[in-house]
Amino acid sequence: ETGVTQSPTHLIKTRGQQVTLRCSSQSGHNTVSWYQQALGQGPQFIFQYYREEENGRGNFPPRFSGLQFPNYSSELNVNALELDDSALYLCASSLKRFGIEEDGYTFGSGTRLTVV
Amino acid sequence: AQSVTQLDSQVPVFEEAPVELRCNYSSSVSVYLFWYVQYPNQGLQLLLKYLSGSTLVKGINGFEAEFNKSQTSFHLRKPSVHISDTAEYFCAVIPTTDSWGKLQFGAGTQVVVTP
Q: Measured between beta carbons, which residues in chain A are less than 8 angstroms from residue B107?
């Protein structure tokens, strides 16, 4: 399977609810990272998984959590949604652990989350 | 800590004219440097990267960038743009000491190409 697929493409949630975003990475890509891109800003690193273990986390609260599965899929879960969580959430996968070799990270098209 | 500054939030340019997008970074350690492009409603696509070696880096779609260590800059250039180059462009760094390969992005530069 080629490319990175994210679902859903758009989502509207109410403040206080919980949401799960999904990502299907390229086969063989053991590293997956999640980024939050607020409107008009660059993407901000949320966390990274390597072979199903979290191995890096950005400046995001614990209500942002994730999972990576053996079939190269992953999830981003956000609990107790706040209005400021409205953003585009990007998933990126890499063949190598650090993502700087060869083609680096392959990004999905993102999930646009709106919290009302 | 590192920071990435893209000096222009928006760059209007006519078709077939040259364009330069400016990127400066601040870091206490050496960094790897990247330029990504984001077309409307799409994810990020890698244009080019600097890891080491020649400071002039050539990427896809006719883009190139030059790493200037003394000025801590990594400006992106294209000698002749097309309408299809209309997109958001992001400069990003990864510190060489980063054990996770975490990308740190600038705020982006919107390029609008008009006929």
A: 40-42
Name which of B32, B12, B113 is nearest B74 in CA terms: B32
pLDDT band at A102 (very low <50, low <70, confident <90, very high): low
What residue of A is the nearest CA neighbor of B42? A109
Task: Please check whether residue B48 touches A, CB under 8 A.
Answer: no
Contact state of A100 with B32 under an 8 Å Cβ cutoff: yes
Q: Are A48 and A64 in contact (CB under 8 A)?
A: no
Closest CA to B102 of A63, A61, A47: A47
How far apart CA B97 and CA B93 sit, in angstroms, is: 12
**Nearest Cα to Cα of residue A62 among A83, A47, A41:** A47
Q: Residue A87 burial by CB count (10 A; 0-12/13-18/19+): exposed, middle or buried?
A: buried
Greatest extent of chain B over all pairs of C-alpha atoms, in Å: 45
B53 touches chain A (CB under 8 A): no
pLDDT at B27: 93
Residue B11 contacts residue B113 (beta carbons within 8 Å): no
Please write the tens of the pLDDT for every residue from A7-58: 999 999 999 999 999 999 988 888 999 999 999 899 999 999 988 999 889 9
